[in-house]
Amino acid sequence: MRESLSAKKQRVLDIISVFDQVYEDAECTLDYTNPLELLIATQLAAQCTDARVNLVTPHLFQKYPDVHAFAYADELELQEDIRSTGFFRNKAKNIIGCCQMLIADFDGEVPGRMEDLLKLPGVGRKTANLVLGDYFGIPGVVVDTHATRLSNRMGLTTGKDPYKIELDLQKVVPKTHWASFCHQLVYHGRAYCMARKPNCDECPIRHLCPQKL
Ligand code: SF4
Question: What's this model's pTM, rounded to 2 decimal places?
Fold first, then answer.
């Protein structure tokens, strides 16, 4: 049965009210202390788990304490420092390029506008939305692997294109909840709605999910 937009919005509100109880403190699971660290940690998290990134970044951020240290890093050495996060050659190249552009075009600061963030090497909408939402407090819908899988299963979007999913979620999730809802999707994806075998029988939103209705 086709669900109207208003019915879907109400269903999302009901999902959020459950999520707010179950995942009250859901937040970004990457460790960082400033926007540059968040920007770099998010780039490292591509095709890698946040837990793995969190193992690498304490040493990394100690060795490269600021934007200049990354911008003028030895690329081969940086590759070795981030090797365990996968795709390390590409990531090292992008991190250096990104930090060089931050120095050249943004006074060494991480910009707080989507259009500026998207100019940086290695920064796509997912990373930009995460930095905007988590550091600058500007609402953003972060579409990662969990948001893609769960929003499809929950009937909030169709397809796998991240930008389409971002727009579909923007239509049904209140703007004030964009950032927190995406963090809650990550938590829910780990706790119940796993990729291979979702635990629908014990899922706290099973009464709100088309997979179980
Ligand atoms: S009912 Fe199943 S598919 Fe739906 S959100 Fe819960 S675990 Fe995922």
Answer: 0.89
